[in-house]
């Protein structure tokens, strides 16, 4: 898998809460709303007809359809964490850099696999903002990602606290050198609650995919 060091470094700085001048950004009190950009993407996805979804052999495997990751700074989808409440809805955009995550959205690391694809989809965001309350997650909780092609339901398998230098979290199997056998999701934010010397990592595995036409059924949002 291709990794872009400049984007990785940018994401490390962003999730550390370090601004472009090196000052800590430990509070997102004046950041844009975390839900507003997500609701805007939701409206776009609802308006898109099923025929608009990406199709083709290169975008389908084992009955799952993948949504290609677009160009830097563009919308990719929406993330939901039901156990944290109905309003825990977060926008996902391409690029885990300071510029992107400062929009109070989740940024997709360069080189990530597509949602639902075997390998690792890695998302980063500010702790005091888009990834607030991540500490409340427990093993077995669901994390739902919605794109133009459907809903990808991941189940949390574990939480880790790591050093910023432990870049193995970006591997196809997070924190492992094993070959990927399933679709993984990794969320990264800074730690501890009032510092940024480490990273809180949430790791989840894909357990279900449902097409976009299933919106509003099977516990899925409209």
TrEMBL record:
InterPro entries: Sortase, Sortase_dom-sf, Sortase_E. The keyword Oxidoreductase does not apply. The active site is at residues 126, 190. GO terms for molecular function: hydrolase activity. Keywords: Hydrolase. This is Class E sortase.
């Amino acid at each position: 898998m291709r990794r872009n060091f400049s984007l990785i470094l940018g994401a490390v700085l962003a999730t550390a809460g370090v601004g472009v001048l090196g000052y800590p950004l430990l509070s997102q009190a004046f950041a844009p709303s975390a839900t507003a950009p997500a609701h805007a993407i939701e409206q776009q996805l609802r308006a898109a007809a099923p025929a608009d979804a990406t199709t083709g052999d290169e975008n389908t495997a084992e009955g799952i359809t993948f949504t290609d990751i677009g160009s830097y700074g563009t919308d990719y989808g929406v993330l939901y964490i039901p156990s944290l409440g109905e309003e825990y809805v977060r926008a996902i955009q391409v690029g885990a850099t300071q510029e992107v995550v400062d929009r109070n959205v989740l940024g997709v690391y360069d080189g990530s696999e597509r949602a639902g694809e075997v390998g690792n989809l890695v998302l980063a965001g500010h702790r005091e903002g888009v990834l607030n309350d991540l500490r409340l997650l427990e093993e077995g909780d669901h994390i739902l990602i919605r794109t133009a092609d459907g809903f990808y339901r991941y189940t949390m398998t574990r939480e880790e606290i790591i050093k910023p230098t432990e870049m193995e979290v970006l591997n196809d199997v997070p924190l492992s050198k094993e070959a990927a056998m399933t679709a993984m999701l990794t969320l990264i934010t800074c730690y501890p609650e009032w510092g940024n010397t480490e990273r809180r990592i949430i790791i989840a595995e894909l357990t279900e995919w449902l097409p976009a036409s299933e919106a509003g059924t099977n516990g899925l949002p409209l």
